[in-house]
Backbone:
């Protein structure tokens, strides 16, 4: 089992930045994928960004160029730097780790962007 603890959410204004962090309770066996998803009220959960243990990254079109995902394997952590935030980025952001055939989720952290 893996426990994921997210931090860094909050209330900001449009154009501001936030950095989300997610720490895993143990080392994650490679190959693996760490990522961030989000869910806005009344909408389905959607992919924001992922980063493979080999370094490849994937971004949703809506955040490409504004968000950057990174990882620190020594700290068992994944980060999401969010710049130029927009009101439509408002959602609960969830950390996710795919390790072999298992899927782990954090409890979510709220990001609210006011206009």
Residues:
């Amino acid at each position: 089992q893996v426990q994921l603890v997210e931090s860094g959410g909050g209330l900001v204004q449009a154009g501001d930045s936030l950095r989300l962090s997610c720490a895993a309770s143990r080392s994650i066996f490679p190959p693996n994928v760490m990522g961030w998803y989000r869910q806005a009220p009344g909408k389905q959960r959607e992919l924001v960004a992922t980063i493979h243990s080999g370094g490849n990254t994937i971004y949703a079109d809506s955040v490409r160029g504004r968000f950057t995902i990174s990882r620190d394997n020594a700290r068992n952590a994944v980060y999401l730097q969010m710049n130029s935030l927009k009101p439509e980025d408002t959602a609960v952001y969830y950390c996710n780790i795919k390790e072999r055939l298992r899927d782990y989720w954090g409890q979510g952290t709220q990001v609210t962007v006011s206009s």
Notes: The longest strand covers residues 91-99. The radius of gyration is 13 Å.
